Amino acid sequence: MRRETTSVSQEDYLKAIWELVQEEQAPISARLAEDLSVTPPAVTAALKRMTRDGYLRVLRGGRIALSSKGRSTAQHLVLRHRLAEKLLTDVVGLAWTRAHEEAEHLEHGISPEVAALLLKRFGRDSRCPHGVPLFGGMFRLRRKFGALRLAQAGVGASYEVLRVYEKDPRFLEFLDQRNLRPAARLRVLRREYDETMSIAVAGHASAPLHLGKPATERIWVRRLA
């Protein structure tokens, strides 16, 4: 695993672009500014530098496309992030709801040697605490398990949670309090006109949970037979 000589800022941009692609969102400047909490002019300047350095291209309409160099670098960066999350939760004992935020700081200091050792410890087929495979990401979840957003789930059917959106600590706390984490099983009871869903979570004895679309769009599931 050769480490690219990129700055921390460039690493953040490449990872953000790759994650937008994985989540089937168009990678454009406005979304990057929102995800990275930077100004639009800062994004424009960064994209110019990274285009010059051969990491990406800005296409007609403002859509950003990673070059093969940019894609490879982004994949290594994302792997380091997920390994950092696994280290924090599985070894250090940090709560899974805080792993993403802490890994954002730790990932930049992981050397290729340490990444290889962590990968050997956790295994290539393992997933991060939020359910994303170390390799393949959402592409693999869709291809192997037919992953879909909970918002798309059918009433009356049972599902397993595969992955949850990890960039909002308050959302993760919300899920944790309701036992809605990767591997949880649930059944969709009802869908209202406003797209609010009522679900029953296996092993959760309380009344059905009611989730609005902002929540159901951030949870990916697979249908159980």
A few lines on this structure:
Helix content is 45%, strand content 16%.
The description of the largest β-sheet is:
6 strands, antiparallel
Assign the CATH class of the largest domain: Mainly Beta
CATH topology of the largest domain: SH3 type barrels
Separate helix tally: 9
Report the uncertain regions. none
What percentage of amino acids are in beta strands?
15-25%
Question: What is the total domain count?
Answer: 3
Overall shape: globular
Instruction: Label the CATH architecture of the largest domain.
Output: Roll
What report would you give on this structure?
A hairpin with a 7-residue loop joins strand 6 and strand 7 (209-211). The protein contains nine helices and eight strands. The protein has three domains: 8-71, Arc Repressor Mutant, subunit A (Orthogonal Bundle), CATH 1.10.10; 77-129, Iron dependent repressor, metal binding and dimerisation domain (Diphtheria Toxin Repressor, domain 2, Orthogonal Bundle); 146-223, SH3 type barrels. With 225 residues, it is α+β, with helices and mostly antiparallel strands. It starts with 7 loop residues before the first helix and ends with a strand. The longest helix has 25 residues, at 68-92.
